[in-house]
Amino acid sequence: MVEVHRLRHGSNAGQPITRRDGLLKVTGMARYAADNHPPGMLHAVIAAARIARGRVAALDVAAARAHPGVVQVMTPGNRPALALHPDDKSVPFSFRMDLLQDDRVRYAGQPIAVVIAETLEAATEGAALLAPRYEAEAVEVTLDAPGAFVPEAVGVGAPPEEHHGDMAAGLAAATRRIEATYETPMQFHNAMEPHGVVAAWDGDALSLDMPTQGFALTQMRLAAMFGIPAEGIHIRSPFLGGGFGSKLLTGPQVLGILAARLVGQPVKLVLTRAQMYGPVTHRAPTRQTLRLGAAADGALTALHHHVRTATSRFDDFIEPAAGASHTLYAAPAIATSYEALRLDTGTPGFMRAPGEASGSLALEVAMDEMAQACGMDPLDFRLRNYAEVEPISGKPFSSKALRDCYAEGAARFGWAGRPLAPRSMRDAEGRLVGWGIGTATFPAMMFQAEARAEIRRDGTGLVETGAHDMGQGAWTAFAQIAAESLGLDIGQVEFRSGRSDLPSAGIAGGSAHTATAGSAIQAAGEQAIARLAELALADPRSPLFGADNIGVVARGGRLVRWDDESRRDSFADILDRAGLESVEGRGNASADAEAASRYAMHSHGAVFAEVTVDPDLGQLRVTRLVGAFAAGRIINPRLVKSQYYGGMIWGVSFALHERAALDHRSGRVMNADLGEYHVPVNADIPSIEAILVEEEDPHVNALGVKGVGEIGITGTAGAVANAIWHATGVRVRRFPVAIEALMG
Amino acid sequence: MNRFDYVRPRTVAEAVAAGAEPGSAFLAAGTNLLDLMKIGVARPARLVDLNHLPGLSSIEALPDGGLRIGAQIRNADLAHHAQVVRRFPAVAEALLSGASAQLRNAATVGGNLLQRTRCSYFQDTASACNKRAPGSGCDARGGDNRLHAVLGWSESCIATNPSDFCVALAAFDAVVEIEGPAGRREIPLRDFHRLPGSTPDRETDLAPGELIVALRLPGEAAGFAPHSRYVKLRERTSYAFAVVSAAAGLRIEDGRIAAARLALGGVAAKPWRATAAEAALVGAAPGADAFRAAAGLALAEAKPSGDNAFKIELARRIAVRALILAAAGTPARLPALPASPFAPIPGGLHG
Ligand SMILES: Cc1cc2nc3c(=O)[nH]c(=O)nc-3n(C[C@H](O)[C@H](O)[C@H](O)COP(=O)(O)OP(=O)(O)OC[C@H]3O[C@@H](n4cnc5c(N)ncnc54)[C@H](O)[C@@H]3O)c2cc1C
Ligand code: SF4
């Protein structure tokens, strides 16, 4: 095959272009799943359990059915049959679902019936009229519950215990030791767009408008569940109003599909805000104990990170909170361990930066406590313990520009000269001011994706892959990669996405979507260009004829000879002469197992926070945030900054606001709405800056792209907590920080 | 939501008649009522829409220098009304510290006075709640009650009144004008809300069918305008209910306090007017010592109703802060973060 060189400068990728779907979004024209109303559509509403454990003894189905407009009530008695039990987990990334399989209740908010009606209002009132009678059993919903066990695996198949070096020796060698326990609460994703589905059956063919973070997995599971061919399932998901890990296929969506099957008409089912606090996963609470030892010079001698967390009584997801301790700091002895409880809650799952968000908070505060114990500046202390290779595995990093992140972030923030002692700084009106730092980290992953590219006779391109725009800007970033791979201007490339009948783009998760689907697009484009080059180079009429060993480059709709700019041939001419309508390229991407076995791959960052605290009232505010992140190649700096901002704001939220208030007796979430489940408002985020630190990574994937979607949360929550200590001298170890903790 | 009748009266008399029928509820902006209907806490048989009634939407200057405010005036319009800002700045500050801009644009004076508690067990129909279902019990006891009452609560109910507006109204002696089946009457706002006792379901002195038509702010209270503030602690910088709050007004003559007003929010089932504290301030030199002593008196009877002992001390401190800010003088413009501890503090915190 001829050599096709890759253009590094003057391409589409790397440009801060605005979202291509921006106009649709700001004018309300972007069509989300629930905006669809196929003819004859009915509305389905879930009746959710108000107990957390027990059984449904009775439902007043007659009352619901008698309500004007109600068409049908779906209960365990008449729910259409499924080919697979809802608890089956054979499809990857599956969680057990509650699909009216019996009368058991396993958590508050579990669906116990579905009312289908002509209007949303009638279905809603019908659900209320079911007035369930329960036989309730005592519940456990806190981390104080008995019955802790060592889980088989944490996160996605990771071992529950890992270590390197000799922990006892490490602790014995320490001249300073700290041990502290940190608590993080149960949190919910709260995507703006609630989970929903508009489902229509045609025989065994199924048409779905449904937000999802993974078409292929969703198709696979639905096909298995309903015993129908996956090819007959068509899903449209052009936009998600946020997913954050909660929008792989969910139980409520399957209930909507079942309801459509039951009534033989299209059905729309959308969760209410309150219903999003139960059946669609959450971030599990954690109680993390960190034991650190350090020598007199501030070098860590031991780092032990133990996590107590919880899963549901019926399924397993263990928040992998200790992962950050495997990679962040060099220590001769590192150990991580877990214990878990089974609680009467829904099953936890992936929530933006699963593991790293809560784990890095605990680790970063512990590091701050140790810096304090050593009398060192917290940044110097982190640099003193900088990991040159990944500590737990001993592997070199594929790239790691964390030192630059520290340096650029500190310079921009003005960290130098920070007084060591807490309560040393005040604002003009006497409020306490403090500065804190946190290191950010998130693994750079790859899943599997395919893409198809075409160069058409009119000289334009077409690129297809079933990617997911969750608001992060996939429509734009992928189009940029597509344009670059084809040597075309972005306006000359048609980019198709957001549908299940396109080549699979894998899942939008693990901060790996751009890396994975982007690499597939790049490969598809390169193959199309290579085919075109073969045509040109073999054609005596082409100015490129005979350039075989020198190679060509695609630029501006032409192939150009690598060593001679004046010898060029346009895509249109090449195809025209060949008498072809188009050439096609196909591309795949997946993790490079060989590279992964040799290198540790992570994005990194450093976050600096300033907080201001009223010394009498305990009220606090984050007044400045600067984050500097290195995540390999940046496809679109504007979108990437938005990801960092969003992540950092989430970090503030983690430290100061978010908490599900569970009633310990009933197991119900008592603040299941956005009025009472607090996330920051604009006034909570006064000044925020994200710095993109240069980093080139030749190993992670063909594009050199690492993830940016989740890392912003990590580091930030710890930086805020550490700034609070610096302002007040109070070391808060329980999150979110409560006003009474800071009253002084 | 249940099915209900909707009526649109054309006169106050028609509204009162419709409102007196069993199962009726007056609908103002609905920012509280409709929320409660959606979660099944309120299930009225009939909504009597007040939005098309004549005569409830004006603000009139009164001969004594006070203001008469129609019940349908929107919170935002009231907060930005020039005479309110000039004569009753703490009322404007309290209004602007509540809810969000969108809610304030809709919410009315009458609705704000009658908004229900935010106790999460009251809002959850599966919980026992004596206020929602008399005699069923109180699940807030022994539950999540960090933000519940520390003053005036009873064994049957420990909920707080969530209104910011009412705290300032209580401090400055507002009067509620009512039109009812038995005619017209007035109640001082201080006496309008009830403490729970054994009947927490009876939250105010209003009888069925009684309609709030207006609110009066007396001219006498305008004398506090140069030294009036509202301060509110919350769990985020904006768009959150008060953990505790305080409205304070001072009249300072010859370096001494000639008259004082102090009311606390977030501490009880009603806005808590602290008359003993006010009396103690009269004659004192404005300053931290006098303010601390007064705040101590204001909370003298306080006791925790659950995991909320911290609120007693916090309420003392917010009272002190409100008095310090009032003494420093009402700012020429309302701060960009109304009622926030992060608004400018004239003279600073002195260490
Ligand atoms: C998310 C959220 C946050 C909020 N935050 C705050 C806050 O921080 N501080 C704060 O103070 N408030 C806050 N509020 C509450 C808000 O102030 C009230 O919802 C609003 O004032 C109610 O006014 P309305 O006109 O919408 O009343 P409606 O909801 O229409 O009515 C409320 C009640 O008053 C009755 N009623 C209304 N008008 C009359 C009348 N003229 N005569 C007799 N009865 C009448 C109704 O029947 C009903 O029972 C918040 C509300 C929400 C939803
Ligand atoms: S505190 Fe009052 S409102 Fe809350 S549950 Fe108890 S009785 Fe009901």
UniProtKB/TrEMBL annotation, chain A:
Coiled-coil features, chain-numbered ranges: none
Superkingdom of origin:
Bacteria
Q: Could you give a GO molecular-function term held by this entry?
A: oxidoreductase activity
Q: Which InterPro entries match?
A: Ald_Oxase/Xan_DH_a/b (IPR000674), Ald_Oxase/Xan_DH_a/b_sf (IPR036856), Ald_Oxase/xanthine_DH-like (IPR016208), AldOxase/xan_DH_MoCoBD1 (IPR008274), AldOxase/xan_DH_MoCoBD2 (IPR046867), AldOxase/xan_DH_Mopterin-bd_sf (IPR037165)
Q: Which Pfam families match?
A: Ald_Xan_dh_C (PF01315), MoCoBD_1 (PF02738), MoCoBD_2 (PF20256)
Start and end of every Aldehyde oxidase/xanthine dehydrogenase a/b hammerhead domain? 27-138
| Name used for this protein in its record | Xanthine dehydrogenase family protein molybdopterin-binding subunit
- Lineage, uppermost ranks: Bacteria, Pseudomonadati, Pseudomonadota, Alphaproteobacteria, Acetobacterales
Automatic annotation (TrEMBL), chain B:
Tell me the PROSITE patterns matching this sequence.
FAD_PCMH
The molecular function GO annotations come to: FAD binding; oxidoreductase activity
The residues forming the signal peptide are: none
Q: Boundaries of each FAD-binding PCMH-type domain copy?
A: 1-222
Record bears the keyword Magnesium: no
Pfam families linked? CO_deh_flav_C (PF03450), FAD_binding_5 (PF00941)
Keywords, alphabetical: FAD, Flavoprotein
The source's superkingdom equals Bacteria
Q: Which InterPro entries did the record assign?
A: CO_DH_flav_C (IPR005107), CO_DH_flav_C_dom_sf (IPR036683), Diverse_Substr_Oxidored (IPR051312), FAD-bd_PCMH (IPR016166), FAD-bd_PCMH-like_sf (IPR036318), FAD-bd_PCMH_sub1 (IPR016167), FAD-bd_PCMH_sub2 (IPR016169), Mopterin_DH_FAD-bd (IPR002346)
Q: SMART domains under this entry?
A: CO_deh_flav_C
- What name does UniProt use for this protein? Xanthine dehydrogenase family protein subunit M
Q: Which species is listed as the source?
A: Falsiroseomonas algicola
List the lineage, top down.
Answer: Bacteria, Pseudomonadati, Pseudomonadota, Alphaproteobacteria, Acetobacterales
